[in-house]
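Hey, quick one: can you model this chain's 3D structure?
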Amino acid sequence: MDEQRMDTIASPMAAAMRGLIARCSIPDPGDYAKDGLVYCGKCHTPKQALLVSPHIERLFGGPQIFPIACECQREAELLREQLRAQEQAKADERERRAAAFGLPGCDGMTFEASDDRNAAKKAALERYCAKADEMLDTGMGVALTGDAGSGKTFFAACMAHRLLDNGYTVWMTSIPQIMTLLQGFDADEQIAVMRRVSRVDFLVLDDFGTERDTSYSREKVYEIINTRYQSGKPLIITTNMTKDQLANPQQTNDARVYGRITEMCPAVLAITGDRRAEIAERKRQLAREILLGGDD
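Sure thing. Here's the predicted structure for all 296 residues.
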């Protein structure tokens, strides 16, 4: 590009930049001039700098004063960046936890929120989470058994939250939910679902054994369990079945699935009590206190 052409472009560009520089150089109350530059009245560091270079001289016809951030402005911007990073980290953590729980209502299910019932089982599960690295290395999972309402899902969610707290990847879901995902997705998305079954650090399957008893369901259950089995990573399940029922399935078709589960989940903990009934009673008592002043 010839010099005349460059001068034609540089002239309006310099004028525009001078206008921008002027708008950015308006002093704040308390600012003062020193050595031909504006200084901040708060931190007493320069808010302008004199720049000298061949390009500056060519564009502006000589050295040019540009606005710069003073020390307190830089500190304020650093603080804003830190706050933005903190908010983004919180958003990322909320998203990570939301993705980890395919089941609703697990937000408040933590070890800290548990009562003294099944205290020994709680302590055992906390030890499991504390040794998560070892559990990953050995692929050792755990089965939580018990009647409906005993608190199996609660303790499984407690484990999921604690493992997430410690930086592990977790997916708490159920066989029917995975099957729904497999039915509703195309081939590539189905592969992604099964890849997640295989790759997540800790897979938590709630209410195992309540699936529909059809040939299609049995094949899908086997595919899911076998995929996890081949990954060598831990499996955590909750089930209404007893330890004996897991070890001795009634139907021979279930033997290949149950055999893999008992191998992946050598620790079987029976959760006792009726947590739902206790919660319902507390709610009834609260309702009586609110509506009737505690009178029956």
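One thing worth noting: The chain has two domains: 3-68, 101-280.
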